[in-house]
Design brief:
Helix content: 40-55%
CATH architecture of the domain at 303-534: 3-Layer(aba) Sandwich
Number of helices: 17
CATH class of the domain at 303-534: Alpha Beta
Strand order of the largest sheet: 1-2-4-3-7-8-9-10
CATH superfamily of the domain at 303-534: Alpha/Beta hydrolase fold, catalytic domain
Number of strands: 10
């Protein structure tokens, strides 16, 4: 017979055990076989519910347990272990997934993904074990805490006080992150250095949500004052923050539906079905996989060369300047891949004052498209010291010092033009079809990629670029084509306002824009699309990502980059 006061914890324990076991099975199925979208989403939801249920189990155990009892003390200490494993496991998964995005080689992929899987399933196994242990404790006679008043905390716990203070600091940071998630272009930091914090908010919001939840439970355990004003306030803040951090996840399903409609309206509803299935079977099979958000997306085979010098300046402002690129190539001889022979040029962002190729430019994107047959070139260009963010000391650390100088937009476009000549000269070496070239970049790189694609296609400033290249399409992400300091960087008006280059023959484009971008306004992307229409050109699709901040695609397996990659590879295949 179960004691009346213990019944809630008995039910939560049973639910946690069931959810953990089912989530383990779902995760294994996700890794082993292709799973349809509804089932895959269901498996991901099971993982989230198992995390939620485990936190609730720890909280209820702590409220009911009598810590003077031996069994009660064991359950109390096990609660600390569960909370630590949840937080450490989630952030280790995130860091390992990001590690894949910052290293060139795939030599360590097996070890990295083994660590990711260990964390994912380890959390679930611990949850199942904790739930089973609690069920056993209930059967033995769960040591109920007597009375409604909690025992007074022990005195002199210096370590405990330190941990409590650190927890409050972490909670405050989590609450501050909500500002960047919710403010968007209304942020008081708009177009300034502190706004860079939003890069690590919206795309990672699930990690923030469950870390905050575990953090609040930990604070309540440490305080051991249930019902007090402080406990109620902390609990309320935690639950509200948890719910708000879930908003991007809730919004992604609406985003995927809207993206499908927009893509088909612009490029034709029947064209996706007409693609060669033998090649498109190698694309992402669904716009968004919730388990993949945590378990990651392991790169397939690719080759690479790094730090190839494509331009050496010898006079004027370029004297002594060396610009390099990395090239990511498909596996040798894989002519069956959908992108074989096509080129993707990628231009990094960084507000024109910083950034770099490689790990600073979503390196995993290069790996992914190379594994799909594209030859991907990741470029450097001259960075300017003519403008500064609101924190001048930050500028020197944003990009390689040897690339920083008094460069204007005209100089940057000239640098990119030098690469087009390099590309034409080395096309045979890489088995490239110069009639099938795409350009992509984010933020400042989005502005430069847009200017480059439109200028080459419109034969504007033809002396700067190779005439052997044909742009089949371009893919700007949150392109910074309207910012307060662009006029300080340029001379030619068309580099300052790239919309001047749009005409009825401009190449197709696919634009990424987050609705909560605090550095590039949503209206900027919408007006650019309208400029296409005004020019009599319907070949511009704008994918708007609900709750997406600036650089919200930064997490490759996140819920913003997954649907973006899904449509980007289809866009390129349709137009190649």
């Amino acid at each position: 017979m179960i004691k009346r006061g213990v019944k809630p914890i008995y039910v939560v324990s049973a639910v946690t055990l069931g959810l953990s076991v089912l989530a383990i099975l779902g995760g294994l199925l996700h890794l082993a076989v292709p799973v349809c979208l509804p089932a895959d989403t269901f498996f991901g939801v099971l993982f989230l519910l198992a995390l939620l249920s485990l936190n609730l189990l720890v909280y209820l155990s702590d409220r009911l347990v009598d810590r003077s009892d031996y069994l009660g003390r064991r359950l109390h200490r096990r609660g600390y272990l569960c909370l630590a494993v949840i937080a450490a496991g989630l952030w280790t998964m995130l860091l390992l997934n990001q590690l894949v995005a910052v290293i060139y080689t795939n030599r360590f992929d097996s070890l990295i993904f083994a660590g990711i899987y260990l964390c994912y399933f380890g959390i679930l196994v611990l949850g199942a074990a904790a739930a089973r242990g609690t069920l056993v404790a209930v059967k033995r006679g769960f040591p109920l805490q007597r009375g409604r008043r909690a025992r007074a905390p022990r005195r002199g716990g210096g370590f405990k006080k330190t941990v409590t203070v650190l927890c409050y600091i972490a909670l405050a940071l989590g609450l501050a992150g909500l500002y960047f998630l919710l403010a968007g272009d209304r942020s008081v930091f708009f177009e300034s250095a502190p706004q860079f914090a939003e890069i690590f908010i919206s795309g990672f919001s699930l990690f923030h949500a469950f870390t905050l939840l575990s953090l609040v439970v930990l604070i309540l355990k440490l305080q051991n004052r249930p019902g007090s004003a402080g406990a109620v306030l902390v609990g309320a803040l935690g639950l509200v923050s948890f719910a708000l951090y879930l908003l991007p996840l809730v919004g992604i399903f609406k985003t995927c539906d809207a993206a499908k409609t927009e893509f088909e309206d612009v490029f034709g509803s029947g064209r996706l079905e007409q693609m060669d299935a033998a090649r498109t079977d190698q694309f992402l099979d669904k716009p968004f996989s919730l388990p993949a958000y945590f378990l990651g997306m392991r790169p397939d085979e690719y080759r690479y060369e790094k730090d190839l010098v494509f331009y050496e300046g010898s006079s004027g402002v370029d004297d002594g300047l060396k610009l390099r690129c990395d090239v990511f190539m498909p596996p040798e001889g894989r002519t069956d891949l959908p992108g074989w022979g096509s080129t993707l040029i990628r231009i990094h962002g960084g507000a024109w004052i910083g950034g770099d190729k490689g790990f600073a430019n979503m390196l995993q994107v290069n790996k992914y498209f190379a594994s799909r047959g594209y030859t991907v070139f990741d470029l450097q260009y001259g960075l300017t010291d003519l403008v500064m963010l609101t924190l001048p000391a930050l500028q020197a650390r944003l990009g390689p010092a040897e690339l920083i100088g008094p460069y204007t937009l005209d100089d940057m476009m000239r640098h990119l033009g030098e690469f087009t000549k390099y590309l034409a000269a080395h096309a045979a070496e890489y088995d490239l079809d110069l009639d099938s070239v795409f350009i992509s970049g984010g933020s400042a790189g989005g502005q430069l990629s847009t200017a480059l694609a439109l200028a080459i296609s419109g034969e504007s400033h033809s002396e700067l670029f190779s005439d052997a290249i044909k742009i089949k399409g371009y893919i700007p992400l949150y392109p910074a084509i309207e910012t307060s300091f662009l006029p300080d960087l340029g001379e030619a008006p068309e580099w300052i306002d790239v919309k001047l280059l749009v005409d009825e023959k401009s190449p197709p484009c696919l634009v990424y824009q987050g609705t909560k971008d605090g550095m590039v306004k949503l209206v900027t992307a919408r007006e650019f699309k309208e400029r296409y229409r005004a020019a009599g050109n319907e070949e511009c699709a704008l994918l708007e990502f609900d709750w997406g901040g600036h650089a919200s695609d930064f997490y490759f397996s996140g819920y913003f980059n997954q649907p973006w990659t899904y449509y980007m590879e289809r866009f390129m295949y349709l137009h190649r």
